[in-house]
Amino acid sequence: MQKITKICCIGAGYVGGPTMSVIANKCPHIQVTVVDINQDRIDQWNTEDLDQLPIYEPGLKEIVAENRGKNLFFSTEVDRAIDEAQMIFISVNTPTKTYGKGKGQAADLKFVELCARNIAKVSKTDKIVVEKSTLPVRTAQAIQNILDNTGDGVHFEILSNPEFLAEGTAIDDLINADRVLIGGNETPSGQAAKDALSAIYENWLPKERILQTNIWSSELSKLVANAFLAQRVSSINSISALCEKTDANIQEISRAIGFDSRIGPKFLNASVGFGGSCFQKDILNLVYIARSFGLQEVADYWEQVIIMNDYQKSRFAEHIISTLYNTISGKKIILYGWAFKKDTNDTRESAAIHVANALMEEHAEVIVYDPKVTESRIYQDLDYLETRSPEENRRLLTVAKNPMEITTDAHAIAILTEWDEFKDYHWEKIYAQMLKPAFVFDGRRLLETDTMKAIGFNYYKIGQS
Ligand code: NAD
Ligand code: UGA
Q1: Residue ranges of the UDP-glucose/GDP-mannose dehydrogenase C-terminal domain (predicted)?
Q2: Predicted local confidence at residue 151, as pLDDT
Q3: Separation of 276 CA from ligand 2 center, angstroms?
Q4: What is the pLDDT of residue 149?
Q5: Is residue 163 flagged as an active site residue?
Q6: DSSP character string of 232-290
Q7: Which domains does the chain have, with CATH numbers?
């Protein structure tokens, strides 16, 4: 079996950066080079001040500090890194298509195809090419075609090795992965490549957790894993709406059903709706694939997970508006949290964007505080919606650095991300500063109902009447 000593990863994003940092950390004998065409991003990965890394992820900066410059490198020299590597991970973004056939559903594979063409152009020795990005089932065939037809006699072995890390817990998820999935061709060279990749993970994970499958099962398993996780969130969120009508309590229901070992306790937290770069994108992709095979019922079934998530976000915003007497024009509403979950600076598809947009449609004066998300990111997210002009977005919404000051004369606070620090705020002081009646809308079920009511708040917690 080939011993891998040089690997390259194309794409220095939320997956490429942390994944390669952990491989470098656990495999001192392997030289890892992470490349990206985005010069700014690479500069940020190389920054002296480790608090300025492009990604906030607990535990990441410590690993980067330990390995960067030793066996972990970040660079824009894509061709050179490909040429030198024995194994190349493709970890570029695969967003939902915004144009042409499959617009709004299919995955846009243009970045992946560019990588394949680049690998074919540059390679002079045999390579193992690893799909790390999340891809539609049978993408490996397209990659193989590109490589075989332009690769100048070099042998390319393609593997699928989807990533299952969650943001905010990426380092722990990588170090203590439930499983690693490796799909490859069922040929002697395919088996050898799977074993070579498996050997890398075996540096820190028990062999029993490394699953080998055929390449199509591996590609499809990634989409299905995300669809099942998102389905649980939408399922519990659908019941949260019913709880609010019936005096049942969603947390008690989650606990009651989660005790059944067949159901299990995880991913049963009702919320303002799931966000993140992948759940929606991957389910849309699954829906598109099912439809393209004529499986209408299968497509409709999974699409409902997204319809329920959209409903949850708009239901929350509408509840704020109706509770504030159906008129929020000019009312000061504070949003605590903009990231799609705690412990990340990622805001892609965050529920906060949609809630803010709905409140701004009603001309509320919105003020946002998030401990890790930058002002420019927040405005980019709003501008991307194209609901109104960038000037209007800046007029209706401001971004604050001090979470306490902004509550003076506020009508309401909505909690949209479950940052731990929100639990420790001086809520009595906040209450004293706000206009009365003072409302708190808790989209993350973060605070204690009895405490908040005792302080005097009109407190709404999602999934509880
Ligand atoms: P990202 O947008 O954070 O990073 C992708 C990077 O690839 C960008 O920096 C971009 O500049 C770079 N890139 C694009 N084309 C390139 C090219 N031709 N050459 C060099 N660099 C190029 O994306 P991400 O969140 O890291 O996701 C990457 C993939 O991993 C996606 O398919 C996603 O679905 C999947 N995934 C993401 C997560 C997550 O938590 N974010 C988890 C599991 C899987
Ligand atoms: C998710 C999966 O958990 C990862 O396994 C997968 O690798 C990744 O997508 C991906 O492919 O990108 P991530 O989106 O980073 O990870 O974060 P999650 O912890 O799954 O949370 C997603 C969203 O669901 C968040 O908005 C979160 O707040 C919400 N959520 C999660 C709930 O509302 N309730 C829950 O019980 C759990």
Answers
A1: 334-449
A2: 67
A3: 7
A4: 84
A5: yes
A6: HHHHHHHHHHHHHHHT--HHHHHHHHHTSTTT-STT----S---SSSHHHHHHHHHHHH
A7: 6-205 (3.40.50.720), 215-465 (3.40.50.720)
